[in-house]
Amino acid sequence: MPENVIKTDQIIRHNWSVEEVEALYALPFADLMYRAQTSHRENFDPNAVQVSTLLSIKTGGCAEDCGYCPQSVHHEQSVKAEPLMPLDKVLENATQAKEAGASRFCMGAAWRNLKDRDLERVATMVTGVKDLGLETCVTLGMLEDHQAKRLKEAGLDYYNHNLDTSPEFYGDVITTRTYQDRLDTLSYVRDADINVCSGGIVGMGENDTDRAGMLVGLANMPSHPQSVPINLLVKVEGTPLANNEDIDPLEFVRTIAVARLMMPKSYVRLSAGRESMSDELQAMCFLAGANSIFYGDKLLTTDNPGMDHDQKLFSRLGINAVEGEHAAPAKEACSH
């Protein structure tokens, strides 16, 4: 453990109420940031950020109607459907990501759910990426129990499946699968002993209570997600949420800070939306406890800051990109 991490016997909670979380959001900004940074230093090196790269291995043609996603067939100007990427192309991209400094390679497919006919091809990709010395992550929509177990056998380290928002607001954004469907998939992932990557999106028209409810849904899982991506809505023309009003940037920072306090040993990823953020806003998010990013100029189909820009920002802030296995936090002290 790095010398500037202060080791503590911190209680990990799984019984948060929405009212408690709303009270955290309502703290004076300086007080919230102080508490979040203190918690961050108790569990992580405050100047280390884990770096992942995300590749779309199956783009477009998704049967889901997620209001934020340009890959849905339900929306105007949806992304054209493409076949599953061949293995050699995936491994080529993974090799480039490793050479650029990524420690984890994430593969995303625009599917409502993984079909058994595609399972072995994806499993082969996972094994190939793992053999390159990278951590592996996939996001493939809903899973069944046997599929999660097969991916674990192939060497899968993380499965991403976001809750997106609160249970109450969820139906305003997505109607083609339920909130419970998402919880069921995450249960299969945990049962297969795969690390959970699950977070949400801010700026979809939700209110303060919904943001609190999203974080309660994540923190009150049987175990906290090992990785918690917090996304700022990327407004894509042709999607139902394209004309949403921008949220106050400080509200986004508050969400990062509250996530850090509620899930102190999880990696909190500053995820989609960084392309529209100033360097100063990103710096504030790192101060609030974000310690993971996606590296590379694309997040599936939307833009992301270039690697050169991220490297310069890291240099300005004195941040080091770290490998996943060297950045692992302590295990949960206890749960209740």
Question: Can you characterise this structure?
Answer:
The chain is of the alpha/beta class and 336 residues long. It has helices spanning 18-25, 29-43, 87-99, 116-131, 145-154, 167-170, 179-191, 208-219, 249-262, 279-287, 307-317; strands at residues 48-58, 104-109, 135-139, 158-160, 195-197, 200-202, 227-232, 267-270, 292-294, 298-299, 302-303, 320-322. The strands form 2 sheets. Strands 1, 2, 3, 4, 5, 6, 7, 8, 9 and 12 form a 10-stranded parallel beta sheet that branches. Strands 10-11 form a two-stranded antiparallel sheet. A hairpin with a 2-residue loop joins strand 10 and strand 11. Helix 8 (208-219) packs parallel to helix 9. The chain is globular. It starts with 17 loop residues before the first helix and ends in a 14-residue tail after the last strand. Mean pLDDT is 85; it is low at 1-9, 297-302 and 325-336.
Helix-strand layout with pairing:
Elements: H1 18-25, H2 29-43, E1 48-58, H3 87-99, E2 104-109, H4 116-131, E3 135-139, H5 145-154, E4 158-160, H6 167-170, H7 179-191, E5 195-197, E6 200-202, H8 208-219, E7 227-232, H9 249-262, E8 267-270, H10 279-287, E9 292-294, E10 298-299, E11 302-303, H11 307-317, E12 320-322
Parallel strand pairs: 1-2, 1-9, 1-12, 2-3, 3-4, 4-5, 6-7, 7-8, 8-9
Antiparallel strand pairs: 10-11
The backbone outline, from C-alpha atoms, is globular
Radius of gyration based on Cα positions: 19 Å
User: What is the end-to-end distance?
Assistant: 26 Å
Q: DSSP helix count?
A: 11
Bin the strand percentage. Answer: 15-25%
Instruction: Provide the helix percentage.
Output: 25-40%
Strand segment count:
12
Q: How can the largest sheet be summarized? A: 10 strands, parallel
- Element-by-element helix/strand order: HHEHEHEHEHHEEHEHEHEEEHE
Low-confidence stretches: 1-9, 297-302, 325-336
Seen as an oligomer or otherwise, the chain set is: single chain
Mean pLDDT: 85
SS content category = alpha/beta
